[in-house]
Amino acid sequence: SDHMENIYGYLMKYTNLVTGWQYRFFVLNNDAGLLEYFVNEQSRHLKPRGTLQLAGAVISPSDEDSHTFTVNAASGEQYKLRATDAKERQHWVSRLQICTQHHTEAIGKNNPPLKSRSFSLASQGSANSPGVQRRPSQNAVSFFNVGHHRLPTGKRVPIMQPDHLVDVREMMSQAEGQQRDLIRSIECLPVSGHLTSLDQDLLMLKATSMATMNCLNDCFHILQLQHASQQKGSLPAGTTISWLEPKISLANHFKNGAAQNFPAEINKPASVREEQSIAEPCQLTREPEEINPDEEVEDICDNKEDDLGAVEEQRSVILHLLSQLKLGMDLTRVVLPTFILEKRSLLEMYADFMSHPDLFIAITNGTTPEERMIRFVEYYLTSFHEGRKGAIAKKPYNPIIGETFHCSWRMPKGDVAADVGSNFSAHSPSEQVTLSKDLEGQTEPDYYTVKFVAEQVSHHPPVSGFYAECVERKMCVNAHVWTKSKFLGMSIGVTMVGEGLLSLLEHGEEYTFSLPCAYARSILTVPWVELGGKVNINCAKTGYSASINFQTKPFYGGKLHRVTGEVKQNTTNTVVCRVQGEWNSMLEFTYSNGETKYVDLAKLSVTRKRVRPLEKQGPFESRRLWQHVTESLRDGDIDKATEHKRALEERQRNEERLRAETETPWCTKYFLKEGDGWVYHKPLWKTVSVAQTQQTDTN
């Protein structure tokens, strides 16, 4: 090909968190199908510092920016590279892809297929071991030839008969059994020595064999549909040929280096036995519990997720996981490896969105409907930054059905001035709204209290309900969220299906809102979070609405974490405020009077939430429920964390199975199903209306 010329030049190469990026001189050797690099151009005549076989490699432009790309070799080794600009990146990516395709195709064309053979790992220490037989010259060509067969040229494949399908099914069953034996043999190898379970070639063999079996199952399904169409003359109406879910259980293959069987019950830690022995939830009291905020203390946990640590060490496991996933695959039922988890439940993450209670309370202080809508938009946009714990994208725990989380915030009244969160020179200062009467014999506190409760109300689909209220300001927010996650190749997308409702009872206003999608990008290198999608905020009573667009970064150019929006009066179609900036750093608000306000999220004060100590929490409250997983992750003991996590998940499955057998419906504790949504059992709008009715009757 005219494009198969050798190219060379300087690129930046990412080494690790300590060393970071370094300039290296790279050479693309098209004839040999190699990407080599040297310290500098002058050392080009010396031995390369590193070499990648490009046959079977994957060249991926990064989502992070327009300069970065990765080269993932079939051996599992990866180079993360950065060009000087988008044009140079495209030049390297296109040449590398052409070279990769050429040498990958040459494997099948130029090398005779090997006869079928099987390796026995039983004699791992003998001279016949694959590890002993491995030669230094072994490369991707020999690796890809294993099990490769071609049909004789010119022969037509006969129409498959029904008994042939039965034969194929039997052969595939045998192959699946052999594949399971292979996986088991690899995982039973020691973690140290000449041939280990962490050997890169064996990990790749493990991943590709599983991917091959999944693909064969899909092909067999297509053959069955094709046979049915031949019998009937055409495919049945409405039939679609689609890729299936993996036929091999994912959960049993994430742990490398040891057998998957856990110790016998007698040897399990007491904490694991406790997790498995908690009674079935509906046998516990499902009566709502009134949490006394005075029992809560200021939270001292600081679980920042800035350490790549285990993610870098376990990259082979991530490659293994990715080999089993398909584009668009629903990840709801996929058990993910423990080391990618952050040390909190999803329910607590929703609570962390409330870390600026001063801005939340200040919404109701707005003197006009326009000002209150703008204040809500400001609070909404500033909530996502604190919801993330650090720059590294990790996944919170999937809540167990019936799991709850409680907390509160205390905000000094002096810190919630009437003009907090706004910049309206055209409007008169907001007047302080009269507070509700104190209870008899009690002194009025000098702070506002915002209480929060969340509950996992459904397991399939996974739905969480959460509710927050400030009784003194007669305001509350109720929301339900169904998280739907999909595999998108080099990223994972999470759609937040659901709706929230903010009620300002002093003004008789209700604001409906939705949530953006979230994306975990660059999951093979340094994962990071991006928000995307359009959300709407509406107040039917006042006729004000807001449209907010979280922009994902385009392939070329553009900035990360961009957000734009506008607040509009629907009746007159007048835009009264525009906002732009980055949702995790700086926001710019431009008002209809021409004034501009900047909000630096890094300088916003964060109010620590208050939670009850573990010993006072119930067995299904998030922190107590996940305490052993969290402690193990904090100690860096991934195996122990996995064991505790598995115990919780197994208990949930057993309880779900028991409810299905006895036809016992699940009983929620704090939230009630209303239509398609979930509503807190005692929302403030109900208690306030009851109190007003009683007061009217008394008068």
TrEMBL record:
Keyword Cell membrane in record: no
Q: Which reaction does it catalyse?
A: a 1,2-diacyl-sn-glycero-3-phospho-(1D-myo-inositol 4-phosphate)(out) + a 1,2-diacyl-sn-glycero-3-phospho-L-serine(in) = a 1,2-diacyl-sn-glycero-3-phospho-(1D-myo-inositol 4-phosphate)(in) + a 1,2-diacyl-sn-glycero-3-phospho-L-serine(out)
GO terms, molecular function: sterol binding
Q: Could you list the residue ranges forming a coiled coil in this record?
A: none
PH domain: which residues?
4-101
Pfam family for this entry, one: PH
- Which positions carry the signal peptide feature in this UniProt record? none
Kindly give the SMART domains that the UniProt entry links to this protein: PH
* Positions of the UniProt region annotated as Disordered: 104-136, 637-658
Q: What domain of life does the native source organism fall in?
A: Eukaryota
Q: Which GO terms describe its cellular component?
A: cytosol; Golgi apparatus; late endosome membrane
List, as start-end ranges, the regions of compositional bias called Polar residues: 117-136
What role is this protein assigned? Answer: Plays a role in regulating ADIPOQ and FABP4 levels in differentiating adipocytes and is also involved in regulation of adipocyte triglyceride storage. Weakly binds 25-hydroxycholesterol. Interacts with OSBPL9 to function as lipid transfer proteins.
Q: How does it assemble?
A: Heterodimer with OSBPL9.
This protein's name? Oxysterol-binding protein
Originating organism: Psophia crepitans
